[in-house]
């Protein structure tokens, strides 16, 4: 997959979503299937929202059975205290630009009603920030 450059992202006003060739637009129902309906056993952690492990087919990116396909980490943002739409789009744009073996790659997003989710590749040993000590 290529890198999404800022120039390719087109945001006109709130409610309009952009199209970027390397990011998949997931539906909420697809992400529910991929994470077993955001099952508590799939919970990886949280902060500004909850992160759930899920599975998608490597080629089609459709939900897959647990343990098959590729692992994903789905960040479901809290609806209370939700960043405004422009901030969320900026995060998608920013994360969509990077590709590095030690950073979780953004695969796609979901924007449905008030639901805002980010879909990252799952990194079994954690991303680089997990290995820094302060």
From TrEMBL:
SUPFAM superfamilies: Protein kinase-like (PK-like) (SSF56112). GO terms for molecular function: ATP binding; protein serine/threonine kinase activity. Pfam families: PK_Tyr_Ser-Thr. Keywords: ATP-binding, Cell membrane, Kinase, Membrane, Nucleotide-binding, Transferase. Its main location: membrane. PROSITE patterns: PROTEIN_KINASE_DOM. It comes from the Eukaryota. GO terms for cellular component: plasma membrane. This is non-specific serine/threonine protein kinase. It comes from Arachis duranensis. The lineage of its organism: Eukaryota, Viridiplantae, Streptophyta, Embryophyta, Tracheophyta. The gene is LOC107474769.
């Amino acid at each position: 997959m290529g890198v999404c450059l800022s120039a390719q992202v087109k945001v006109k006003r709130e409610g309009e979503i952009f199209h970027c060739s390397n990011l998949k637009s997931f539906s909420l129902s697809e992400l529910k299937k991929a994470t077993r309906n955001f099952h508590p056993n799939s919970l990886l952690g949280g902060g500004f929202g909850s992160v759930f492990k899920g599975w998608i087919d490597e080629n089609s990116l459709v939900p897959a059975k647990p343990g098959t396909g590729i692992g994903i980490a789905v960040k479901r943002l809290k609806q209370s205290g939700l960043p405004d739409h422009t901030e969320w789009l900026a995060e998608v744009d920013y994360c969509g630009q990077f590709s590095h073996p030690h950073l979780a790659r953004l695969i796609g997003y979901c924007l449905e009603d008030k639901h805002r989710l980010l879909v990252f590749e799952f990194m079994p040993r954690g991303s680089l920030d997990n290995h820094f000590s302060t």
